[in-house]
Amino acid sequence: MASTKEWFESVAEAERRARKRLPKSVYSALIAGAERGTSSADNLDAFRELGFIPRIATGLPQHRELATTVMGIDVSMPVLVSPVGVQAVHPDGEVAIARAAAAAGIATGLSSFASKPLAEVVAANPATFLQLYWMGGRKRVAQLLEHALVHCARGIILTLDWTFSHRRDWGSPTLPQRYDAKTLLRLAPEALVRPRWLRDFLRAGGAPALTVPNLARPGSPVPRFFEAYGEWMSTPQPSWEDIAWMRERWDGPFMVKGIAHPDDARQAVAVGATAISVSNHGGNNLDGSPASLRLLPAVVDAVGSDVEILLDGGVRRGSDVVKALALGARGVMSGRAVLWGLAANGQTGIANVLEILRGGIHETLLGIGRSSIHQLTVEDVLVRDSFALWPTQRRTLGTP
Questions:
Q1: Which DSSP string corresponds to 242-311?
Q2: Rounded distance, CA 62 to CA 170, Å?
Q3: CA 294, CA 313: separation in Å to the nearest integer?
């Protein structure tokens, strides 16, 4: 079926429509990676280096099993919405994402730097995990955990794959600290050439908010983005003892996001993590770090029987999801693809992206002769010699 005005047939088309609809600086922020973008590009390249051998006349039933459980939540397919902060894509923001995710039967992650309050997002999708950074020390983190508990977050995603990398060699925009007259004048030309984006925000009450309601202190005004960002940046990175302390204070699902090394995966298991996410922050962390997918098999080798493992980074197709599961992931997390859908057509666009992923998983299983995602193994993918990184990974994947 060809794309129409209200429907698109690929995530690539969603991105194209997002690029046409969004102001240049907003779109640039969605695609940017740290420094040269090496890691961001490798997230995509790694998926291209895996292939399939099609099977025919398999006699498979029409139905293929896509459902699974992630951190205690039944989901209709192995895809979760990754938490993404500072959304200026659409005025409905994270609430639209939550509604679309709930309709699709999947969970969503809400960034602590989100534009919408946790309570509103949970109301739209009770299967919502709140993402937190380690910021302000133990007293402040305890306060944030209490906020998550009071507003019924189903679990915590502790994001650690960030080293405050601000360097961009190829066009990531500078976020305005506030929308004063000077800033609005500077940004006006971008907005005026994207009238649909401007119209949507004007109808919703004005320019995108630069406040972060989920980081408000009790009894204090909602902080602006850079106020909260400064608090985060000035906080020393946590130790594993800090993370263990945090885990003890959260009696529910707890994910450590940002795992790249098998030893860190073992540490996450030791502190009692429910799940880990193998992630390089979408290529926005340490540039030159390998694609998440390349790191996945060694992590699975180390802790695959002890903890749920998710993969975050570079997922654009249902076949990408199948590749990640074949290498040992329980599921994947998708951020950019969902935001492109939101930009392209609001909540309907998100639903469109999720159905593209669902359809792609279904078709790939059929093509390789599998009736369930739970049947997938490393034998279902073809791996180039250059793909594997660790000696143990080479043995796992059967490469020289």
A1: HHHHHHHT--S-EEEEEE-SHHHHHHHHHTT-SEEEEE-GGGTSSTTPPPHHHHHHHHHHHHTTTSEEEE
A2: 46
A3: 11
Q: CA-based angle 379:377:350, to the nearest 5?
A: 120
Which of 147, 281, 362, 374 is catalytic? The answer is: 281
Whole-angstrom Cα distance, residue 326 to residue 51?
11
Give catalytic status of residue 281 as yes or no: yes
Encode pLDDT of 99-148 as tens digits: 999 999 999 999 999 999 999 999 999 999 999 999 999 999 999 999 99
Residue 35 in contact with residue 285, Cβ under 8 Å? no
State pLDDT tens for residues 32-50: 777 888 889 999 999 999 9
Of 30 and 239, the structure prediction assigns the larger pLDDT to: 239
384 Cβ partners below 8 Å, 6+ apart? 49, 50, 399
Contact present, 308 and 326 (Cβ < 8 Å) = no
CA 207 and chain centroid, separation? 25
**pTM of the full structure:** 0.91
Alpha carbon distance 293, 312 (integer Å): 8
Dihedral pair phi/psi, residue 108, rounded to 5°:
-130, 145
Q: Assign 172 a pLDDT band (cuts: 50, 70, 90).
A: low
pLDDT digits (tens, 9 = 90+) for 198-213: 888 888 887 777 889 9
